[in-house]
Design brief:
Distance between the termini: 10 Å
CATH topology of the largest domain: Ribosomal Protein S5, domain 2
Structural class: alpha+beta
Strand content: 25-35%
Radius of gyration: 19 Å
Number of strands: 10
CATH architecture of the largest domain: 2-Layer Sandwich
Order of helices and strands: EEEHEHHHEEEHHHHHEEHE
Number of helices: 10
Largest sheet: 6 strands, mixed
Number of domains: 2
Helix content: 25-40%
Length: 285
Amino acid sequence: MTLRAYAKINIGLHVVGKRPDGYHNIETVFHPIDLYDEVAIHEHEEEGIHFQSLGANLPNDHRNLCVRAAQLVMDVTGVHRGVEIVLIKRIPIGAGLGGGSSDAAAVLKGLVKLWSLDITASELELLGSSLGSDVPYFIRGGTAFATGRGEILEPLMITLPYWITVITPPIHISTAWAYRQLELRQQTMRTDWKILLTNGSRNPAELRSHLFNDFEEVVFRHHTEIKNIKDQLLKVGAEVALMSGSGSSVFGLFHDKPAFDAISALFPSSYHLSVTSPSFHPLAA
C-alpha cells in the first residue's frame, strides 16, 4: 500500500511556557496543505525493517522516524514480520511543515492496516506522541487547535477561504535551537484563536491583528532571508503571512489564486514553493 503523508502549517504559534519535563506548552492551529510525501509499505520475506528513502539523503536506521515508528509497533504488539518501507520525500526537511512526523504517522497507520492490528485511533495517537509532539495530529488529520506539547487536539470545523502559498528556503531550522533562543513573553488579553478562525476567518484584518508566531522574532534575527519571504508575500498581495512552526517555511494567505510563475520569480530557484486551494481536502488514508 502507498499512503500520502501530508504537510501542515501552523496558523499562529504561541509558546505558553516551559514545563517541568523540559518541553514547552504551546497553543497553535494545525492545518493541512496540498504537499505530501509518499510512504509505500509492503510485507518483506525477511524479518525486520527494510527502509529506503527516495528524494532525500536520510538515515535508514533508528535515527529515522519511519524506522522508529515501525519498531515501536513491533515492540508494542509483539509482531515481528518483515516489512519494506519506501519513503518518497517531497516535503522540505527542517522547514516547520512536520514532514518527519507525518511520515511516522503514515507508517503507524499503514502497519495497523497491513497487519490488521487491534489498535484504536486513540491508542495509536498515544503511541505517536512518544515519537514526536505533532505525530498525533497527523494520525488524526483535519484542522485542529493544539495545546500541551501539541498532542492535545481539539478539531476545528472551519473553512479557510484562501489560497495558501508556502515558500521554503534551503535553510534547516532546528526546533531545539529555536526553543533555546526563545525569550518567553506573557501574552495578556489575547484573542482566542479557535473563535477567531471559526467566526472570523473571512476577515483578513482580524487575522493580521491577532495571529502571530512567537518564533518569528528570533528566527528573523538570525536569518533575514526568511523575513524577506514574509515581506515579499505581503508585498504581492497576501492578506496574511506567517512563518510555520519554528521555520524555515513562510506561508501567505491569498484571496485569489496567486500567479505561481510570478511568485517563483521573486525567489531563487533553490526555494521550494507549494500552493493549496481553498477547496483542498487530503485524501483519506
